[in-house]
Amino acid sequence: MRPIAISCGEPAGIGPEIAATAWQALGADIPLVWLGDPRHLPKDTPIHETDDPQDQRPGKLSVLPRDFGPAAVAGQANPAHAQGVIDAIADSVRLVQDGTARALCTAPIHKAALIDGAGFAYPGHTEFLAALAGTSQVVMMLACDMLRVVPTTIHIPLADVPQNLTASLLTDTILITHGALKRDFGIAAPRIAVAGLNPHAGEDGKIGLEEREMITPVLDALRNEGFDIAGPMSADTMFHAGARSAYDAAVCMYHDQALIPIKTLDFSGGVNVTLGLPFIRTSPDHGTAFDIAGKGIADATSMIAAIRMAAGMADAREGAAK
């Protein structure tokens, strides 16, 4: 079976150790290949260095070795590693694009080190992956067993949300989400709930006009095309268990509206999924955690969930193609 590629991420963070822990938990069932400098993995990790991602050895983690130069110091990002981190991501993308790997799971990066060391020109992982894939239409989903959420606007100040929240952006976000639910999650007839922007979804214009003037017309147009869409809904009533049972994904208007409920429900097990790419990409829903790096206490739950989700998405996509 073709492996799932894991890009190393920031060497001084917890990425290498949670990748090794995830391999120990899943490697017997899900073939994996790690791209990075082998010196950055925990010293007790049995590895098999190879130039063939599909060369899997029982009891060993397959590694496509890269020389990052200076040794990594846990908790201290080194800009000298920046180009190696970037190249590992790009090489991983090539593996999934040419079909050598089934999916990509990325370990967390440290953007400041990439900017300082290699002039990294992207706001983050997602934008870099979109550029490598040649697409500008990507959507961020956070997913766990209990909930899938999609923020329409992401890393912008709350004050800037209303002017950035356009009918075109909302339409594209819903369409990309709908397509991914069908293709990557095997849901034949996706049900999508859409939150309003304002309290009580605007309360018919009394607490804001965005719902009446933009959001509702977008949803009505999509409903007229046959999409199963509920909303705009009051965000404070759409995330309890009964409400969640009525939809497959929730599209929200801004970052915290989407991320607070999923991080409350499953702080450790959430997975970041990039929708709209021609390949599958997942990532643990946390950062580099410099403060605990190298101490052997990092929680690999999210990385394990990300790998499992990547494998499940690959199964769904491959099954749909048959």
TrEMBL record:
Residues binding substrate, per UniProt: 125-126, 263, 272, 281
Q: How is the cofactor bound?
A: Binds 1 divalent metal cation per subunit. Can use ions such as Zn(2+), Mg(2+) or Co(2+).
Location of the region described as Disordered in the Swiss-Prot/TrEMBL record: 41-62
* UniProt cross-references to Gene3D superfamilies, sorted A to Z: Isopropylmalate Dehydrogenase (3.40.718.10)
* Cofactor field: Zn(2+); Mg(2+); Co(2+)
Q: InterPro entries in the record, alphabetically? A: PdxA (IPR037510), PdxA_fam (IPR005255)
Q: Which domain of life is it from?
A: Bacteria
Among the record's GO biological process terms, what is one?
pyridoxal phosphate biosynthetic process
Reported EC number(s) for this entry are 1.1.1.262
| Identification of the protein by name | 4-hydroxythreonine-4-phosphate dehydrogenase
The source organism is Yoonia litorea
